[in-house]
Amino acid sequence: MKVSAINRTKANLRNLFATRPSLLASAVLIGLHDALTYDKETGTGGLNGSLRLELERPQNAPVVEGAKAIGRLAAAGKDGVSVADFYAFAGAVAVEVTAGPRIVIQLGREDAKVPDPEAASAKWADDGSAADLVASMASSSIGGAKEVVLWHGAVGVLGDIGASREAANAAMAGDAEEEEIDAMTYGDSAADSGVGAIGVKKRKGAVLVNSNVSTLTLGGKVKFGNEYLKALLAADKAGKKGDLSVRDREVLADPACRAMVEKYAGNNKAFTNDFANAFERMSLVGSRYESVKLGG
Asked: Can you give the residue ranges of the Plant heme peroxidase family profile domain (predicted)?
């Protein structure tokens, strides 16, 4: 895989989010929805690009628009970057362009040719209970209550950032910023070390790459962090449960999830670091790699 291909992938994703910031929240969910089909008993499913063949499933409704947009980027590219790699990289880029942490992603995935069986992902519906969400994470080897809260907080804050940026874009009459491909670089430290941020060694056939993109100029003051969880907890303590979504209330009602909300609402550094690590772990679930090398 050429460095130029990696740079183009990053630039295309960054420019997509610059012009369509409403897709930021969807970007961190796309990889998760794909990965949630992983069956640890059989070793099938996972983040393998099969989501593109599963968009008619009700549980995938929240990511249809984003998955189609990212799928079009993959289809238009001539670098041979798989849809699965685009799905994994999209979330990492969405986090970093909103001033979040850099996430290490292993590239070189093979795309699945057929849909994965419906499994735990069916429980990740908008009205799913917190217990179902935790079970969904656990059965797919992604995590538990901690990861449910990390994704809930990430999706929430990226949704707020996207709405703020959409308003700013409208005011700017479409004057969205785009980054030149030549200004982007791949993550040397990750590529050289062969070890990701969570200490996972590079898998055979994979290329380790940092997201390593510049931040977008946001339309508001919010940047990637624990702001959504702080607001969630504040609304609950103020008795304003009517301001909360069904998912918000479910997460707060579950003792294990609430404990994580309280932990991360009080520690932004822990939230951002733990999400980056959780996203990297999720991106490895069920991934199968071709034999690729980093080239010039």
From this structure: 63-296
Cβ contact 84:287 at 8 Å: yes
Report the relative pairing of strands 104-107 and 207-210 from DSSP bridges.
Answer: antiparallel
The percentage of the chain sitting over the pLDDT mark of 70, rounded to a whole number, equals 77
Cβ atoms of 33 and 64 within 8 Å: the answer is: no
DSSP assignment of 186-211: --HHHHHH-B-TTSPBPPTT-EEEE-
Burial of 65 (0-12, 13-18, 19+ CB in 10 A): middle
If DSSP codes are grouped into helix, strand and coil, which group holds residue 160? helix
pLDDT digits (tens, 9 = 90+) for 251-262: 999 999 999 999
Domains, in order of start, for the chain: 3-284 (1.10.520.10)
